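**Polypeptide and fold**
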Amino acid sequence: MSKIKLIENHSEIGAGTRGASLGVDAIKIASINASSEFFANFPSEKVPTENDILFKRRKPSFAKNIKEISKVFEYLSHSLKNTFNNGFFPIVLAGDHSSAAGTIAGIKATFPNKRLGVIWVDAHADLHSPYTTPSGNVHGMPLAISLGEDNLDRKSNEVKGATLEGWENLKNFAGISPKINYEDIVFFGVRDTEDQEDYLIKKHHLKCFSVTDVRTKGIETAVNEANEYLENCDLIYISFDVDSMDCNYVSHGTGTPVPVGFSEYEATKLLLNLLKNEKVCCFEVTEVNPTLDEKCNVMAETAFRILEKSAAILEKKKSPFTRNGQAV
């Protein structure tokens, strides 16, 4: 049986809009309003942030706040390593998605010899680097960081100085680069990409299940295919960005909402089936932004319902690791 620990990461310095740092608290409010004891049932840890940097005026950059994001990686990686070594299953509740690369770094720092699969439930591929980014927002780069990917074939920006140094530090964080392989990534719901990302998806033949694919195949079939695709991985990390859901049916309470996504029912059923895989070692929920929610707190309420049901599945699972970071 898995013992769950909640890791609260309120960082939002990788996002382009403000408010994701309030996402975890918005989920907590949703739990209170639902008369749930969820947050009383599990130990939790709040990792430090560097959000105060947002009060300072910064120069334009192709990787905004990259120095401070590296510190967030340190906080998160340390927390995850301690969580694993104490025999807990980590559920990470995150602000913006840039810190997913820190989560991956924490997993690899604990299990350096284990092959890590990634299931990315998201509207976005997050494969940009400072060399290709149109925005400079690092929440569009976590998979590129973890892959050690510059994508110089589609370079559009000149990266140098502190940005280049910071980027190299992120890629090589924890002394491992790359931390994951292209063949060990599965996308669900990705539908809003730029040409530079499309190039990498095609070049590396990434496994992608569109919303239409999931509906056509059926959720169980898509999940079985994903599990078979990742069968050579020792551990699997699932990252759930709430923008994978349809903003018109749920709400716009996320930094980069995209229509034609999953319904709450589909996202819930998809995740519950994915989480049954005994290799899953970490689950992350990210990018709730209540300041952008035109329906009050609907996105957080939806995310909480999914979170509560997901934790119930995880509690019943056999843990994929034991104390002192030893994977089964």
Strands lie at 3-9, 44-46, 88-94, 116-121, 185-188, 207-209, 235-241, 280-286. The chain has a mean pLDDT of 96.
